[in-house]
Amino acid sequence: MSGGKIHESTSPAVEQAVPVVIAILHNNGQIKKNKKAHRNGLKKPAATRTRSLKGARPFVDAKFRRNARFALAGSNKARLEAKQAAAAS
């Protein structure tokens, strides 16, 4: 059994491994984020009034968009005429 030498400590004060207890705060970062988020209150996202007719995802064909534009112009014209008639009388 000729292995290697076994190293023994020659210093008189051999330290024993003492387990160190560290306070671990689980979820600490989340608590801080939650507190910060609630400082001015959580806000609901603003609801969109109408769906966008732009873009390729909810694809809306050009014929519909053109007709909607003319219909909106006609509605605005009718509203304006009704307002002027109410103001005149």
From TrEMBL:
Keywords: Ribonucleoprotein, Ribosomal protein. GO terms for cellular component: cytosolic large ribosomal subunit. InterPro entries: Ribosomal_eL29 (IPR002673). GO terms for molecular function: structural constituent of ribosome. Residues 32-42 have a biased composition (Basic residues). It comes from the Eukaryota. Residues 31-50 are annotated as: Disordered. One of its GO terms (biological process) is cytoplasmic translation. Pfam families: Ribosomal_L29e. Belongs to the eukaryotic ribosomal protein eL29 family. This is 60S ribosomal protein L29. It comes from Crucibulum laeve.
